[in-house]
Model the fold of this input.
Amino acid sequence: MEVRGEVYLTKAGFARLNTERAAAGLETFANARNAAAGSLKQLDPRLVAKRPLDVVVYGLGADEGSERLTEHDQMLKWLKAAGFKLPRKPGNALRRMNSSRHQRARRAPAQFRL
Done:
């Protein structure tokens, strides 16, 4: 089974990582997003394990041979029961996206093609 989510650094974790890098005479990271993404690309898993990465899981990818979870809320309940960290309010992203779409629809038509 494949779980999908986002790996990130908290503000405190990012500050700690940069403090440790500066103390070791290494270049500090410019931002947490790139530091997290770069961490995942490291070839040495011991180096990755030392970084204060966190993850939030929001869904499933490939799930051959496992129980079929056809509804998103079923999937989130299963993931939570399995011990995965979930978004605090999983429906908020969808609501924001729909709200943004409705706001764009009320605007005057664009004067150019996308």
